[in-house]
Amino acid sequence: MAAEQRSVEPADLDLSLVALFAGYALNDEVARRLEASGFEGLRFSHGFLIQHLVEGARSVGELAELMGVTQQAVSKTVRELEGLGYLGRRAPSEDARVRLVTLTERGVAALQAGRSARAEVVAELRASLGARRVDAATAVLRDVLQASGAITDIRRRRVRPPG
């Protein structure tokens, strides 16, 4: 017989858990909207790789170093996203042996759709909860990022998967 679990009340959650779970809920809604828009197969974890391709193509080795993971892990994710049509590889003009990973047109469109979906979700929250409350919550969480030092990695697009 399984032990009965006590339900968790929202008032019992501290700031770190509230922020985490709110982020999960918002991310799930953005992912649902992306899927509904025809961008299938994208997962939260893909964003850790895609963030490094926003400004241009990179090698698997460079991506692995930026992400703090193995080249094998990056290669696996790149193959998956290639299969879904979001990434491609090309040889730079100076060295045909190296392959650079790049966003495809579909990948750029998914990135833009994700940005739009996030903006829509925030606009809906502002309408339902009030702009002042949403702006205040956003300001507090930005202050937390600043106080924790995480803002530096965010500015440099060096956000790493939880580990």
> Which geometry do the CA atoms define?
globular
Structural class: mainly alpha
Task: Let me know the CATH homologous superfamily.
Answer: Winged helix-like DNA-binding domain superfamily/Winged helix DNA-binding domain
The count of domains is 1
Biggest sheet: strands side by side, in what order?
A: 1-3-2
Mean of the pLDDT scores? 92
Report on the structure:
With 163 residues, the protein is mainly alpha-helical. The protein has one domain: Arc Repressor Mutant, subunit A, CATH 1.10.10.10. 60% of the residues lie in helices and 6% in strands. α1 packs across α5, α3 crosses α4 and α5 crosses α6. The mean pLDDT is 92.
Question: Can you give keywords for this protein?
Answer:
single chain, 163 residues, mainly alpha, Arc Repressor Mutant, subunit A, three-stranded antiparallel β-sheet, 7 helices, 60% helix, 6% strand, globular
